[in-house]
UniProtKB/TrEMBL annotation:
It is found in: Cell membrane. It comes from Ictidomys tridecemlineatus. Pfam families: 7tm_4 (PF13853). GO terms for biological process: chemotaxis; G protein-coupled receptor signaling pathway, coupled to cyclic nucleotide second messenger; lipid homeostasis; regulation of angiogenesis; regulation of muscle cell differentiation. Residues 41-289 form the G-protein coupled receptors family 1 profile domain. The lineage of its organism: Eukaryota, Metazoa, Chordata, Craniata, Vertebrata. Belongs to the G-protein coupled receptor 1 family. Its main location: membrane. The chain crosses the membrane at residues 27-48, 60-82, 102-120, 141-164, 204-225, 237-259, 271-291. This is Olfactory receptor family 10 subfamily J member 5. The keyword Ligase does not apply. The keyword Flavoprotein does not apply. One of its GO terms (molecular function) is G protein-coupled receptor activity.
Length: 309
């Protein structure tokens, strides 16, 4: 019976925002506008980091890597979501769904650990400034980025393999992309093992980075309080403010989405949270680092000045 159901279900159909009826055109315009700004912002950050030698530091290496990851992350989800707002009931094949889920999970976990690496970078910069260039060598930076991506690949392989070994009976996904929980609901069999795996992975990729970042900022604050002048303390904390803002929003949304009790789930809440961490959060990265970071703004002015010249 399980094998029969596996062969019968060959594609899924996203219900997405179908319950919003006549508002779907408005949603399309809003989401498309946000998406364009997200792509433009992240591409600007990657470009300006590459071309301006003042930004060839570990901090901006991590920032440009995060911006690149966020760009691909949104490309995996948003174009199909926008298409579904115009052309209703678009199907996606099982292999297509598995591919989308794999890249989504890989990049989402990669982003979590990249933010952790950025927290470690700020810790070294403030708590061990004289040894900063030695500790944050090119090899260390490459290792942290490779470790983040490798962790994402391993966790995604585990989750997606476990998911698509299940037999599916339903075809209507009550979501706008192949997220784990909406797809799992379509299975014909008990999914307790999958739920344990997913909760374990979610706990690991949220709580471990949060714990490491918290430790980093406790040590950072301890070092900042030792600075004699108020101006010095303000300058030191300013270097962390952008990162801390992104961390709070990113992990806040992820914790609510993946660690909340199953009884508190609802379609509307899940859609709202998904929109936040797939569309709004990727926009937050370039906005915060562009508007709050003096070095990035100076680099943009230099780039514009060279273009005008």
């Amino acid at each position: 019976m399980q094998r029969k159901n596996l062969t019968e279900v060959t594609e899924f159909i996203f219900l997405g925002f179908s319950s919003f009826g006549k508002h779907q055109t408005t949603l399309f315009v809003v989401f498309l506008t946000v998406y364009i700004f997200t792509l433009a912002g992240n591409i600007i950050i990657v470009t300006i980091t590459c071309v301006d030698h003042h930004l060839h530091t570990p901090m901006y290496f991590f920032l440009s890597t995060l911006a690149s990851s966020e760009t691909v992350y949104t490309l995996v989800i948003v174009p199909r979501m926008l298409s579904s707002l115009v052309f209703y009931n678009q199907p996606i094949s099982l292999p297509g769904c598995a591919t989308q889920m794999f890249f989504f999970v890989t990049l989402a976990i990669n982003n979590c650990f990249l933010l952790t690496a950025m927290g470690y970078d700020r810790y070294v910069a403030i708590c061990a400034p004289l040894r900063y260039t030695v500790i944050m060598s090119k090899r260390m930076c490459a290792g942290l980025v490779g470790g983040s991506f490798g962790t994402g690949l391993m966790m995604a392989t585990l989750q997606v393999t476990a998911m698509f070994n299940l037999p599916f009976c339903g075809t209507m996904v009550d979501h706008f992309f192949c997220d784990i929980h909406p797809v799992m609901k379509l299975s014909c069999v008990d999914t307790t093992v999958n739920e344990i795996i997913n909760y374990g992975v979610s706990s690991f990729v949220i709580l471990v980075p949060i714990g490491l970042i918290t430790i980093s900022y406790i040590l950072i604050i301890h070092s900042i309080l030792k600075i004699a002048t108020a101006e010095g303390r303000k300058k030191a904390f300013a270097t962390c403010a952008s990162h801390l803002t992104v961390v709070i929003v990113h992990y806040g949304c992820a914790s609510i989405a993946y660690l909340k009790p199953k009884s508190e789930s609802s379609v509307e809440k899940d859609l709202l949270l998904s929109v936040t961490y797939t569309i709004i959060t990727p926009l937050l990265n370039p906005v915060v680092y562009s508007l709050r970071n003096k070095e990035v703004k100076d680099a943009l002015r230099r780039a514009v000045g060279r273009s005008v010249s």
